[in-house]
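Give me the 3D structure for Salutaridinol 7-O-acetyltransferase.
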Amino acid sequence: MPQNTNQSSDSSSTAHLENSNSLQKSLSKTLVHFYPFAGQLKDNTCIECNDEGACFVEAWINCQLSDFLKEPDPNLLSLPSSHY
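Predicted structure for Salutaridinol 7-O-acetyltransferase (84 residues):
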């Protein structure tokens, strides 16, 4: 039995890796058409399209995304921001 659990865990990890790789490729292809999103703010007045791409961040959580989206906690949304 533990061997089956390890196998399912391995297949789950493989599925997550495949999904992550697919998202990275999709982001790369999308940024070709929406290149300003891959740039950086310059002097808070314009976007410098420097062809550096976007930062792809991967995270693991112990819940379903749909559960979080039902009632999002603003304190957990500590995303970087800039104020003008």
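Residues 1-8 have pLDDT under 50 and may be disordered. Let me know if you want a second pass.
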